[in-house]
Write a sequence for this structure.
């Protein structure tokens, strides 16, 4: 087999999943992760349908994931006084199994650490390809040679920028911003969430870690704001400008935001690319085909992408030209279907006018009594299952 030494950038979902499968097929993976250590906690992500669950089962991690599941129930839409107005079923948000992203990353790390070299606190700085491999320089460590480099470094992928060009060419803002952070569960939510929608805005709170804490979530509609991704002070100011006096728990959560240990703020966006590889470099997960944080598909898509990419490399005996082309062929339609879900949800999440917001709130009220009440969950499952996984063993 050729091209055995593979560098993966990113240790969240796609990166460790890829390392797991590469090792199983006889490759030697190394992972470089920018964060100084595994990032704990974070928001909830979910897996749904046959394809996601079967990859997790084949990796032997499904039981661990089940044990760490959030166990969330339904989600209520509330009015300004916090009175529940409508209930949305759990499987719409939580799929078949929901887990905090950090807990998932920990499980995947534990499943790979013995056979994968992990380098934390560093990042790829440059990639120079020649006929036999890629010379990689790092921000901190010494340069190294690898046969292949895979970018699993998320929506704002450095690997993608170095190989394909600036992010503006590939990242499509869906007209919504999202902020999320950990806060006290001061509403005493019991494995549930409350959401409050007004024109162009949505504030929500859901309990986490079996009610010992909560996540505060803010969504607002806006054209691209061009904010510096590292300028948390400015991001918090933007959020405060939009949500102060917005009603329900907005002001309380904005106060808590100042002390949050893990404030996250970003555009709800998709990655759209015509090709996911160039030469000896390929992308997987959000870096290649992020369906958006609102799609509920990103972690499953990243997982399936890692399975297919590693499998195709093995099937081609390490020949990256054959394998990368087949990876795209297997994954393209699947990824596009998942992205369609993301696009649709973004449009519905924060309708711009008061009228539309109130129509949607009313629709949610009567939805449990309508014949098509499970339509959104059924569509999400269909998109998540729309791939036939090859057996690469
Ligand atoms: C608020 C929010 C809510 C979400 N909700 C859901 C949900 O309900 N269901 C669902 O399925 N998905 C959800 N997602 C999406 C899901 O988290 C992603 O799709 C999934 O994590 C993609 O995995 P990934 O490994 O491709 O990328 P990421 O999880 O983004 O990981 C990228 C990794 O690369 C690292 N990295 C970045 N740059 C570098 C660099 N230069 N060098 C080295 N390492 C680097 C990062 O630190 C990170 O560890 C949500 C996302 C967000 C933001």
């Amino acid at each position: 087999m050729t091209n055995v030494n593979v560098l993966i950038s990113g240790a969240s979902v796609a990166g460790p999943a890829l390392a797991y499968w590469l090792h199983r097929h006889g490759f030697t993976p190394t992972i470089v992760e920018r964060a100084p250590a595994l990032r704990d906690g974070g928001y909830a992500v979910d897996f749904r349908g046959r394809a996601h669950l079967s990859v997790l089962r084949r990796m032997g991690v499904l039981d661990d994931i089940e044990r760490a599941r959030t166990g969330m129930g339904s989600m209520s839409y509330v009015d300004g006084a916090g009175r529940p107005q409508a209930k949305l079923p759990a499987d719409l948000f939580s799929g078949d199994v929901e887990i905090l992203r950090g807990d998932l990353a920990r499980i995947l790390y534990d499943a790979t650490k013995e056979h994968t070299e992990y380098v934390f606190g560093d990042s790829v700085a440059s990639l120079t390809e020649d006929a036999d491999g890629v010379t990689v320089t790092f921000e901190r460590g010494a340069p190294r040679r690898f046969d292949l480099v895979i970018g699993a470094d998320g929506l704002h992928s450095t690997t993608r920028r170095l190989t394909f060009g600036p992010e503006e060419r590939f990242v499509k803002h869906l007209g919504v911003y999202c902020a999320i952070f950990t806060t006290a569960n001061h509403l005493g939510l019991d494995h549930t969430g409350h959401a409050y929608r007004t024109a162009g805005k949505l504030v929500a709170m859901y309990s986490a870690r079996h009610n010992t804490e909560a996540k505060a979530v803010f969504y607002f509609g806006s054209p691209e704001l061009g904010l510096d991704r590292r300028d948390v002070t400015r991001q918090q100011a933007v959020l405060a400008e939009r949500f102060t006096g917005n009603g329900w728990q907005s002001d309380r959560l904005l106060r808590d935001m100042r002390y949050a240990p893990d404030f996250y703020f970003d555009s709800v966006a998709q990655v759209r690319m015509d090709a996911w590889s160039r030469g000896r470099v390929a992308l997987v997960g959000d870096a290649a085909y992020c369906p958006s944080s609102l799609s509920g598909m990103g972690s499953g898509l990243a997982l399936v992408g890692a399975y297919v990419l590693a499998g195709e490399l093995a099937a081609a005996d390490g020949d990256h030209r054959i394998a990368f082309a087949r990876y795209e062929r297997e994954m393209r339609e699947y990824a596009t279907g998942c992205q369609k879900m993301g696009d649709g949800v973004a449009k519905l999440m924060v309708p711009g006018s008061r009228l539309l917001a109130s129509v949607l709130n009313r629709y949610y009220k009567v939805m449990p009594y309508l014949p098509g009440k499970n339509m959104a969950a059924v569509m999400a499952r269909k998109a998540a299952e729309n791939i036939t996984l090859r057996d690469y063993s």
Residues 9-15, 32-35, 43-46, 101, 123-124, 152-155, 158, 178, 180, 285-287, 293, 296-300, 302 surround flavin-adenine dinucleotide (CB under 6 Å). DSSP finds 13 helices and 18 strands in the chain. The chain has a mean pLDDT of 93.
